[in-house]
Design a protein that fits this description.
257 residues, alpha/beta, Rossmann fold, 42% helix, 15% strand, binds NADP nicotinamide-adenine-dinucleotide phosphate
Amino acid sequence: MAGNPFDLTGRKAIVTGANTGIGQGIAVALAKAGADIGLVGRSAALETQELVQAQGRKAVLIGADLSSIGPVGEVVAEAVSELGRVDILVNNAGIIRRDDALDFTEADWDAVVDTNLKTLFFLTQAVGRHMVEWASQDGERGKIINIASMLTFQGGIRVPSYTASKSGVGGLTKLLANEWAIKGINVNAIAPGYIATNNTAALQADATRNRQILERIPEGRWGDPADIGGAAVFLASKAADYVQGHILAVDGGWLAR
Ligand code: NAP
């Protein structure tokens, strides 16, 4: 709809880790708002591709294992070649490893920090270099959305590398906003609360933890990936052109308690 500041018609987005969970919810929400999507990940996002195409939008599969920064250059080159350019980057791919801090291994530290923080930064750098080439020319702004966590604000328990990585994502979001706002790019983050996905399957299956979590959520339910999609559409849209370095909690009220 012309003049609708939330309309993403013609915009080109890439979403990492889009085959399932929050990434799928975001990809479908951006497509419903009008964007074409590059689905980046190590598992082919065939179901998400169908859901995006059902909205009449283009969905391109871009294979990449983001546990190292090796593929970032090719991801951006492929996205630009298939979509024309990249207007929106959603850094969603992420992993978690659980163990007591006293026993936590270097392997579990590196795996999580490399995927959730190091690759996120270098993919964002590669997309940022592409965005600054066009951002000041046509009045459109580039939009970068990082997926943070409640553990961007809180300490958590038995997830030291995850907490470190997601706290780092919060800091990087602000740093990049400080550097790139003047260059025509908005950098923000979404901090999902407790969302029912593979990432939280162990918590959902633990009756005690499940009850404790639900007791603290004012909305009284686990979030759904679609709950995160709406926030992503907002941050990706013109409606958020003056929103910078913000970490938007979408948590059913968890942090308000
Ligand atoms: P999920 O269902 O486990 O999805 C994680 C996604 O990341 C999958 O698409 C996964 O691909 C991808 N991924 C992981 N490692 C990758 C790698 N090396 N290369 C490429 N892709 C990789 O979990 P989710 O809950 O939707 O998580 C999405 C994001 O939200 C994560 O950053 C997570 O930390 C964050 N988050 C989740 C919650 C929650 O409550 N669920 C709360 C706060 C933040 P594969 O399927 O191939 O593994």
